[in-house]
Design brief:
Layout (H helix, E strand, L loop, with lengths): L2 H13 L13 E4 L10 E8 L11 E4 L5 E17 L2 E3 L6 E3 H26 L3 E2 L8 E3 L2 E3 L4 E19 L13 E9 L6 E8 L1
Parallel strand pairs: 1-2
Antiparallel strand pairs: 2-4, 3-4, 4-10, 5-6, 7-10, 8-10, 9-10, 11-12
Helix pairs in contact: 1-2
């Protein structure tokens, strides 16, 4: 399974959340960074970024055999998964009859994401040979809200940063290498008696 598949699985997991707020459906949109966004509806944007942390140190980077006498190498690369939750100053329900406070809604949305991460992401990561970076076991919510002077409205932005250990592997098997080509084929097996004491000599003849 690839890192791309893992990222997609994490995004799809958040997309599957029920963001119903006090029996109201705020119609929260979930996007991966670069796939688009909406400033009209509340939305969640998920971003994957390289981390400036040092890679996870281990005794050695050889993790097994690749082919023949060639080895597979690997280590855990730390990646930042940043979840951004955005709400405007206020939002209305689908029928435009009830107004929802943007700060309370943003806090609720980010809390749902945090709860999902803590309860289920460990299992998802395990399926991809990945895991949480143990320096930050609990993903905390950060309030990065700001006042947008252009629209003259308050934008509520609650962020959750999750550091992941992602497997990064490679090998040094030459391109086109055929492991079976290095194995000699046995053409015949002969047994000869050398003396009367029944001492035997086994001769194995190989086919080049």
């Amino acid at each position: 399974m690839s890192i791309t598949e893992l990222r997609k699985a994490l995004v799809e997991d958040i997309k599957g959340l029920d963001f119903t707020y006090q029996t109201l459906d705020p119609q929260v949109k979930v996007y991966r960074h670069g796939e688009g966004f909406s400033m009209v509806n509340p939305y969640v944007m998920i971003q994957f970024l390289p981390s400036n942390r040092k890679r996870f140190q281990s005794v050695g980077d050889i993790i097994g055999k690749a082919k023949g006498d060639y080895y597979r190498y690997g280590y855990a690369r730390v990646e930042l998964c940043s979840i951004h939750c955005y709400c405007q100053e206020e939002h209305k329900n689908a029928l435009k009859t009830i107004t929802i406070n943007g700060r309370e809604l943003c806090e609720f949305i980010s809390g749902k994401c945090q709860e999902r991460i803590l309860k289920y992401w460990e299992n998802i990561l395990f399926d991809y040979n990945a895991g949480f970076d143990r320096k930050d076991t609990i993903p905390n919510i950060k309030d990065l809200s700001y006042y947008d002077e252009i629209s003259e409205t308050q934008i509520y932005n609650y962020d959750i940063d999750v550091y992941l250990r992602i497997p990064f592997t490679w090998d040094k098997v030459p391109e086109g290498y055929d492991e079976t080509g290095d194995l000699a084929k046995i053409a015949s097996l002969e047994v000869e008696e050398l003396n009367s004491n029944k001492t035997k000599q086994i001769i194995v003849r190989y086919e080049e």
